[in-house]
Specification:
With 185 residues, the protein is α+β, with helices and mostly antiparallel strands. The chain has two domains: 33 residues; 149 residues, no CATH class. The chain has four helices and nine strands, in the order αβββββαββαββα. It has a four-stranded antiparallel beta sheet. The protein has a three-stranded antiparallel beta sheet with strand order 1-2-7. Strands 4-5 form a two-stranded antiparallel sheet.
């Protein structure tokens, strides 16, 4: 009888530990899926493929508050071929973002491939984003951080030809204008 009680106690203890473990894992998955997540990256400008933008995006499922950025080296305001302007002194990267809704982004024109390559070279710039969950009811909510990298190497040989509809419309209007001038003469 004593062996049965001990065996039952062990089984109940193991069952309790499994239940606690699965509850903890469920909580961590829930917490992770409802947190903000702010990233920074380079992308091609949709309207002018030779221009690269810096994008700040909240890819998380919750709003972020007091989003601040720090860099391992200063960023220029813009970096075009032969002209890396003065360091960035204002804007979201400097003054922060007070409230950043989920799925939203801030897009800033940064420069062209040659200008950014001259500035960054083969290195990468580490961007640390710090923020907290907006409207958190947890009095012990802590600040979160995320590291992103701005690098130009992966943009080498990316197609930057402009096949946009606006360019095609502009070319067509130019042809129409030339035809009308010929007709007028």
């Amino acid at each position: 009888m004593d062996v049965l009680q001990t065996g039952g106690f062990v089984v109940n203890t193991l069952t309790m530990l499994v239940a606690i473990g699965s509850s903890a894992i469920s909580y961590l998955v829930y917490k992770d899926s409802t947190s903000p997540d702010v990233i920074v990256y380079l992308e091609q400008n949709e309207n002018s493929k030779t221009i690269l933008n810096i994008v700040i995006k909240n890819i998380g499922k919750s709003a972020a508050a007091d989003v601040k950025f720090s860099f391992d080296r200063a960023l220029p305001r813009q970096a075009f071929d032969g002209d890396a302007s003065s360091n960035m002194t204002d804007g979201a990267f400097i003054q922060a973002i007070p409230f950043f809704a989920p799925g939203t982004s801030r897009v800033f024109m940064f420069g062209n491939y040659a200008g950014i390559k001259d500035f960054i070279g083969n290195e990468k710039i580490k961007v640390t984003s710090t923020f907290r969950k907006a409207n958190s009811r947890n009095p012990f909510s802590r600040e979160m951080s995320n590291e992103s990298y701005i690098e130009i190497q992966s943009m080498a040989y990316v197609d930057a030809s402009d096949n946009s509809n606006s360019r095609k419309i502009a070319e067509s209007l130019s042809k129409i204008e030339k035809a009308l001038v010929k007709l007028k003469q």
